[in-house]
Design brief:
The structure holds two protein chains of two kinds.
Chain A lengths: L7 H25 L15 H8 L1 H34 L5 H7 L2 H4 L2 H14 L6 H25 L4 H8 L4 H30 L2 H6 L7 H11 L3 H25 L6
Helix pairs in contact in A: 1-12, 2-12, 3-7, 3-9, 3-11, 7-9, 8-9, 9-12
Chain B lengths: L3 E10 L2 E11 L4 E5 L6 H9 L6 E6 L2 E2 L10 E4 L11 H11 L4 H14 L15 H13 L5 E5 L7 H18 L2 E6 L2 H7 L2 E6 L2 E6 L1 H6 L4 H6 L4 E4 L1 E3 L2 E3 L5 E2 L9 E4 L5 E3 L8 E11 L4 E7 L2 E7 L12 E5 L5 E4 L11
Parallel strand pairs in B: 3-8, 3-9, 6-7, 7-8
Antiparallel strand pairs in B: 1-2, 1-4, 4-5, 9-10, 11-15, 12-13, 13-14, 15-21, 16-20, 17-18, 17-20, 18-19
Helix pairs in contact in B: 2-3, 2-4, 3-4, 4-5
The chains are: A mainly alpha, B alpha+beta.
Chain lengths: 261, 354
Amino acid sequence: MSAAPLALSGRLWLGLMLVFLYAPILVMAAMSLNASPFYQLPFEASTRWYAKLWTNREILAAAWRSVWIALAVAAIATLIGSMAAIALWRHAVPGRRLLQALLFPPIAVPWLITGTAMLVFFFGIGLDRGSPAVILGHVALALPYVIVVVTARLQGFDPTLEEAARSLGARPLTVTLRITLPFLAPGIVAAALFAFAVSFDQFVVSYFLARPGDTTLPVLIYTAIRKGFTPEINAISTIVILVSMVLMLLVARLARFGGER
Amino acid sequence: MSGVSVSGLVKAWGPVRALDGLTLDFPEGSFFGLLGPSGSGKTTLLRAIAGFVTPDAGTVRIGGQSVDGVPVERREIGMVFQSYALFPHMTVAGNLSFGLEVRRVPARERARRIDEALALVRLEGFGGRRPAELSGGQRQRVAMARAIVTRPRVLLLDEPLSALDRGLRTEMQIELRRIQREVGITAIFVTHDQEEALTLSDRIGILREGRLVREGPPRAVWDDPGDAFTARFLGAANLFTGTPEPGGLRLASGALLAGPPGRTTGCLAVRPEAMALSPVEPGAPNALPGRIAALVFAGATVTALVEAAGQQARVTGAPSAFEGLAEGQPVWLAWPPGRAAWVAPDRPGVATGK
């Protein structure tokens, strides 16, 4: 697609969209660097809230918990999701269309409902609230994203490459490891980053499934705001946003969503 | 190096029989062209020999031994795909090395054999390139080199040249032939291009609806196609049907066409280039009056469509042979009896000679 120059009205519209999307975030980031705790102007640059953040053990503990939960979710969801994507692509699994359709409700159903349902279900099977429940819940949420991203990458894969490798004497496992996986690698890495982001940014399901006092970062931020706002929240939120945006930029670079062979 | 033979191969995809009891020998060291219209089973046959297709019945033998139940990777074949299927994330040398690595060939031996194979396809010094950096013809050469570097027992080629443009295709035909001769390997290739099959092959096999209809050296099949289907498929022959008599074929119009001696059936096939046109009645035994329906100029040749004996006949020749003739003009169609061939009619119900 060749890019024609955008008309002035289009540019204005685009500018408006970007302001709408990013202005609140920029204000928050700016305030995290403002010395005044009450958003007072004039702006006085300071890193005191970041410094204070380092001494807040509650926030640090929640942040650390969020990171390792997200890492665990990324590992589990990427492994299961990639295998599922390859299986659905390679084999004529009975009911493949139905299975693929069933992947999307977790994206479409409101998280509030998903979260409630998981809470009820985990309670029913005797799994207590806590990090294992959070991880399971997050994996369920992240799986569809992984499958979609890996499947998109597979669309560009020529199956005759696998046949060529077998004709050259490679056993099926060698073919997967040396031909299929290297081709899929960018998609799989993108999927892992996606899964990490889904987990790291997740609030509703975590809120339902985490043990109080032992929560993830987004839940802690929410509770902290309810108790009374502190500018440290601006600081940690800014960090979270930066991490998420870097992840999404990496995803966009790696996945290219099915383009490029 | 080994010959290949298949016997009684059957493969059905649902109600369609892609292979319908096919038996065929591919002699050791030959370059064998499998030819047929799409859906004739030629690709299924090639894939059954490779092991990608498991036949419902029948046996594939490589070097005299049955390979039934032997997976693709242990059949010791080399295969060249229509799309080349070069590994995009590897260099040319990496592509060639792959088959040697999975066979655990030591590194020094690998390097030597890769150089040897690249030299054979005249791509010395291209080892470090990526497939994306190569032209179509170069990719084709890499695909050939990769298929033979493992020293397979048989080389299978699936429409190997169809992705190339015309000029390059002719050049690569000669190259393929040279490489196959130098290596001395049994090669089986599938094509729907009859000219390609005739150019490359020692032997050709014509397939139709999963069965072998004719097999032999290209010249023999060309001169004596055997049945109407093969005659029409190879070289668009003109077919005349009628009643065989001792002297030849009696057409419904009453004219008698002389055919070659020997087996007589209800069909006489005459190639377009064997026929000649003349504005006056020639004194030859085979002459039919007709009218030129169209003259088609194709550079080196001209083709005339002539309505004669209630059908349309194609006559092809050098442009000079058609000088002074015009569309709509009455002409005489003639050919030497020796240039016609008796072929079996393709529908039951057409008279067959005794």
